[in-house]
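Morning. Coffee machine broken again, so started the prediction first thing and wrote up yesterday's gels while waiting. Chain of 348 residues, entered below exactly as on the submission form.
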Amino acid sequence: MLAAVTRSPGNLVLDNIPAPATPAAGRVIVRPEVVGICGSDLHLFSGDVGSLSGVPEFYPRIQGHEVSAVVERAGAGCPPELSPGTRVAVLPLTSCGRCYPCRSGRPNVCARLRLVGVHIDGGLQEYLDVAADAAFPVGGLDAGRAAFVEPMSIAVHALRRAGPITGERAVIVGAGPIGLATVIAAGDAGAETMVIDPEVTRQNLAMAAGASRAVWGEPAGLLEAVREWTGGEGAPLVIEASGEPSVLAQALEMACPAGRVVVVGMSAGTAEVRPGVLPEKEIDVLGSSCASGADFAEAIRLVTAHAGLVGSLLTHRFPLRRAAEAFDLAMKRQPGAVKILVTIDSAS
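Came back before lunch.
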């Protein structure tokens, strides 16, 4: 079968590899239809793996963790809803079930976490073997929107980490796919959002997705804009979705006393912050990693409920044979390129 293999940083090639055999009990073989490219894919593709962990060697790797697929064959003991022909979104996370995070009910930060497309081979191939409990039926969603369930689940988990947000004002820094998904999810939860991003195209997308304001400027001007928007108090919630290390210090200043800052963006860089702002304001600073099964199920609901908005974020499609072009475009970070998809077959 055909696969796109990242052999080394920046070197993605097409290769013929063996197809998976008959699925074991509790596992399914799926046929990937559409795979989205996200920021963590670019870390691996470029060799900037400092923000990734879990294996001593990442290459060669078949990437792709934002996967929509169709069930091809199901092993013994799989639930009846995973019958052949069922379209699913794939939860890319495998946890050990034994470490402290797993025992604490937080398998999304398992000490032995393995992610499809990062630590083990992912969706940029014609067939993929996954655990049955990682395959979530998506109902009537088309393949492209089903591939957006995974990034939406990241937004859902970030908001779960933030706690109740109904009636609150939240500042979202970064209007990439995760930031825009967070705008949609926060609006659905009853929050009002301001988005900070330098690109006008992405500011416009944020407004279309439901943000009340979308701004950019120098740090002092942005801080003033946040204070003006919040009646001088500062933001009860700031979500950092840009992955830029310098944003953390700004986010702490933007948050109001007793506020929360949730860090979603990944980076291997270091951030210089003023520690005194933490006790002065008693700010909660929370990391947010991956998503749980419950988050994934909620993400399916959100993508279905906001299918039109999600569709507007799916800007580029490439067939599997042109996967290298898709990664090249994603690496350029052009303003009009939001969610870039690789289509494994003729699915839309």
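The chain has twelve helices and 17 strands. Going to sketch it on the whiteboard this afternoon.
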